[in-house]
Amino acid sequence: MDQNRTPYFDVLLDYVDSGVIPFHTPGHMQGHGMDPAFREFVGDNVLAIDLTQIRGLDDLLQPEEAIDEAQKLAAEAYGADHSFFLINGSTSGNQIMMMAACNPGEEIALPRNSHKSAMGGLIMSGVRPVYMQPEVDESLHMDHTVTPETVRRTLREHPGIRAVYVVSPTYYGVAADLRGIAEVAHEHGVPLLVDEAWGPHFHFHPDLPMDALEAGADLCINSTHKMLGSMSQTAMLHHRGPRIPIDRLKAVVKLFLSTSPNLVLVASLDVARRQMATQGRALLDTTIARANDIRKRLNEIDRVYCFGEELRGRPGVFDLDPTKITITVKELGYTGYEAEEILRRRYNVQCELADLFNSLALITIGTTQQAADRLVYGVSELAREDRPIDVFSPSGVLERRLSTGTYNLPKIPPVVMLPREAFLAPTEFVPFKQSVGRICAEVITPYPPGIPVLSPGEEITREVVDYLKLELDAGVRMQGPYDSELRSIRVVKQ
Ligand SMILES: Cc1ncc(COP(=O)(O)O)c(C=O)c1O
Q1: Is residue 295 left, alpha or beta, with left meaning phi > 0 and alpha meaning psi from -120 to 50?
Q2: CA-closest candidate to residue 262, choices 238, 236, 221, 231
């Protein structure tokens, strides 16, 4: 196929060129009815191609013309049998993968630190989770990926598992041994689903980790918007091989699509694919070199550390994406949150994410040399103006974590009810301290490390309550619960 073509972007341009007089959605009628201030800012062109799925513009739910061709081009570019354009991110991709691979009540193996959209997938699909603990890195206070050994053990212990689902790479750019995991899954006769939200660029450069499809995944999702040039909300779902029936997959994809998709988003996937297929190698050459240079310069700053190749081979670290830069600031006496805040306020630099010890910077094909220099400058100034560690952190979170270690996570509690059943059951709030023995109806995730300690359908154990009390006392934030201070917890009504 001709990867220089952008069939979907082209039909939108043709529609505009033909001067059609619109009597169809969206109601702003190619910008004429749009609020003038907004229109002036975003420009006429983007509104002119904000169209609906009328004749000639194909149908994302039943693609037969230009969208079909654009998706086939994407499949060829990524080495997939089929690719699907998604407009609700990898969030919908996770949900689709689970519903396509398993029936209600069947078991799926998944890492305990999966993205929250995977929990949404469990709730929607009615699938039973068998959690796998990812490898934890105590020195970096970070969790990595699951290993093939963990997957093998899980499949042996739970012969009923119908699919293996893993996350690779992690937010921090650590990649799993996907080839090893695919072999284990396939030996057991089950498909491998990969949340590769953070790896849409992997396929296009040999110095990046092997992409999930090449490693043998049966389904994978890519948040094209995260690391490539398409617009927010866009993602691709790729399918390869016979293990996931394509008719089932197509039917599930349809459930997750709007009948009024934003065609600007769809076209942005088409052009992002062309960009990667035709110039990906060269663009990523520059990006990787720039990222490596930034990492080197940051590591030259006293007490600033950005991990790199030296991590390879640690448990759960099979490979690394050099374009993710984790700036570890704990030796400066700052939390990652504080560093993020200072970088933003003083140097107008905004990181992607912060946790207790790190701020994370993404380097992509859109990162300029000027931006790179600004990041290095901001961090070097931050290091120069540091505060001594002993006057820091009135709540004691940092010191506590440093002195006691972070990761004595409690055992995963018994799953006594499907997440879907617990989520939909009548629930009530009970005092957290008196909740032992009850069935949890929400997700409780101390952050960091971001690994859920309780999920819907799990029995609340004494060990979990004691652990969470320690975390709360240390000032750790809880993600997920309705009562974020966890004085009460939502449980299934008895
Ligand atoms: C590992 C992982 N999977 C899935 C998602 C959801 O992706 P999206 O924001 O494209 O819906 C995220 C978002 O950060 C993520 O980190």
Answers
A1: alpha
A2: 231
Is any atom of ligand 1 closer than 6 Å to the C-beta of 235? yes
Q: How far is the CA of 322 from the centre of ligand 1 (A)?
A: 19
Task: Ligand 1, residue 226: give the atom nearest the CA.
Answer: 10
Return d(Cα 31, Cα 42) in angstroms, integer.
Answer: 10
How far apart are the CA of 445 and the centre of ligand 1, in A? 16
In angstroms, rounded to a whole number, what is the distance separating the alpha carbons of residues 356 and 359?
8
Is 195 near ligand 1, meaning CB less than 6 Å away?
yes
Torsion of CA 44, 45, 49, 50, to 10 degrees: -40
| CA distances (Å), origin 225, targets 42, 232, 260 | 19, 5, 20
Q: Is 5 exposed, middle or buried (0-12, 13-18, 19+ CB in 10 A)?
A: middle
In 3D, which of 79, 62, 73, 83 has the Cα closest to residue 7?
73
What does DSSP say about strands 219-222 and 192-195: parallel, antiparallel, or unpaired?
A: parallel
Mean pLDDT lowest among 115-124, 147-156, 177-186, 280-289: 115-124
| 287 pocket-lining for ligand 1 (C-beta < 6 Å) | no
Facing residues of 128 across strands?
A: 107
- 226-255 pLDDT, tens digit per residue, is 999 999 999 999 999 999 999 999 999 999
- Rounded to the nearest angstrom, the distance between the alpha carbon of 36 and the centre of ligand 1 is 33
Give the predicted TM-score (pTM) of the model.
0.94
| Burial state string for 122-142 with b = 16 or more CB within 10 A and e = fewer than 16 | bbbbbbbbbbbbbbbbeebbb
pLDDT (tens digit per residue) in 264-293: 999 999 999 999 999 999 999 999 999 999
Q: Is residue 89 lining ligand 1, measured as CB closer than 6 Å?
A: yes
Condensed to tens digits (0 to 9), the pLDDT of residues 46-86 reads: 999 999 999 899 999 999 999 999 999 999 999 999 999 99
Q: Is 69 in the pocket of ligand 1 (CB under 6 A)?
A: no
- CB–CB of 427/494 below 8 Å? no
Q: Is residue 472 helix, strand or coil?
A: helix
Q: What's phi and psi for 229, nearest 5 deg? A: -95, 10
DSSP per-residue codes, 196-213: -TT-TTGGG-TTSPPPHH
Distance 90 CA to ligand 1 centre (A): 5
